[in-house]
Amino acid sequence: MLFEFDSDQQLWQKTVREVTAKECPPTLIRSVVDGGADPAPLWKSYLGMGWTELADPDAAVELAIVVEELGRATDPTPFLATTTQYAPLAGDSGPDHAGAAVYDGVKAYRDSSGWVLHGTALRVLDGDRAEQIAVATETGVFTVAADKVTAKRSAVFDPVLHVADVTFDAVRVDDPLTGIDVERARHIALTGLALSTVGACQRVLDLALDHVRNRQQFGVAIGSFQAVKHRATDMHVAIQRARALAYFAALTVAENDPRRRLAASMAKAAAGECQSLVFRNGLQLFGAMGFTWENDLQFALKRARAAEHMLGSASEHRALIAEEYRATFV
User: Fold this and answer.
1) Can you tell me the distance from the alpha carbon of 26 to that of 74, in angstroms, rounded to the nearest whole number?
2) I want to staple 245 with a disulfide (CB 3.0 to 4.6 A). Which of 31, 211, 213, 267 is the partner?
3) Closest CA relative to residue 70, chosen from 100, 43, 103, 37
4) What is the CA radius of gyration of the chain?
């Protein structure tokens, strides 16, 4: 495995960052939150640039770069759910439509007319605006058109994020998909959430550093104070650690490495611990200004926090990692 970006990946990262800075600026995010602006044109631009085609496992690292940068920009589109949750579960390596994934809460049974899905899936990312939904059950994976289910968007901490409870009331579906590795799909989903969190945390640090360089007290920038330096350094170290583990998880996906299961949980746990520290220190460095609605810091903070409540918290994945190691040495 290579643990540094090659020249092509470095160029790709630079390109994605430039595109997101132009197409997804803070003013757009604020217009979505404050004015109800429709992010559909931005989503269509991602489709037009072929970014959703990176859902193929061989392009896991390139997709990881996009997901991190979109997390940094507080992306308001269904890109994360479509490429890291729906596509791996539906076997769609290049979806041209918005998708969502359901991992729990729905059961499949067969009657005289065919397969039927019943149940309610809670907190489904983009469940209210997906065109197709991939559903993992004990029987297999089914795909369902969104107009066959009832989705109710939930009020969540991140006002840009779409999270919904999706109800399947005796929904008739075709036969289950074949050849789908549900466990692998979940690993990709965990890695995607971790990378999005890392990107949001990096945005918090960037904003905090810009603030402490310019904010003055006693005639000097507050960034020169030792206590401020310590907080900023702690944030940087936590982000670097979480980023390294997230990209390692992406590499295990790309190479179908058997360490993928452990790597995905490690990435999700590290990202969760990272956002907790970055959230606390980021607000502390901004002081009272960090709590104001006019400050764009709020969007990055809320995006960083959001993923902690999806597909398992840091403590839950810590427990999974410990259990894995205990099983290895017993």
Assistant:
1) 8
2) 267
3) 43
4) 20
Which of 118, 61, 127, 58 shows the shortest CA–CA distance to 94? Answer: 58
Domain boundaries of the chain, sorted by first residue: 7-90, 99-173, 182-329
Q: Compute the distance between CA of residue 92 and CA of residue 71 in angstroms, rounded to an integer.
A: 22
> Mean pLDDT score of the chain, rounded to an integer?
93
- Among 282, 274, 283, which Cα is nearest to 313's? 274
How confident is the model at residue 254, as a pLDDT? 92
Burial class (CB in 10 A: 0-12, 13-18, 19+), 35: exposed
Mean pLDDT across the stretch 308-317?
91
- Please provide the CATH number assigned to the domain covering 99-173: 2.40.110.10
Percent of the chain with pLDDT over 70: 98
Q: What is the pLDDT of residue 222?
A: 86
Q: What are phi and psi of 122, to 5 degrees?
A: -95, 145
Mean pLDDT, range 104-109, rounded to an integer = 95
Q: Are strands 141-145 and 99-102 parallel, antiparallel or unpaired?
A: unpaired
Tell me the C-alpha distance between 291 and 286, whole Å: 8
161's tokens: 């994020």
> What superfamily does domain 182-329 belong to in CATH?
Butyryl-CoA Dehydrogenase, subunit A, domain 3 (1.20.140.10)
CB burial of 189-225 (b: ≥16 within 10 Å; e: otherwise) equals: bbbbbbbbbbbbbbbbbebbbebbeeeeeeeeebbee
Task: Write the CA distances from 38 to 77, 96, 132, 133, integer angstroms.
Answer: 9, 18, 20, 21
User: In this structure, are residues 74 and 80 in contact, taking their beta carbons and an 8 Å threshold?
Assistant: no
Q: Are 242 and 267 in contact (CB under 8 A)?
A: yes
**Two tokens, residue 230:** 């310590």
Characterize the bridge pairing of strands 216-217 and 220-221: antiparallel
**Res 117 pLDDT > 70:** yes
Note if the pTM is more than 0.70.
yes
Bridge partners of 124, per DSSP, are: 164
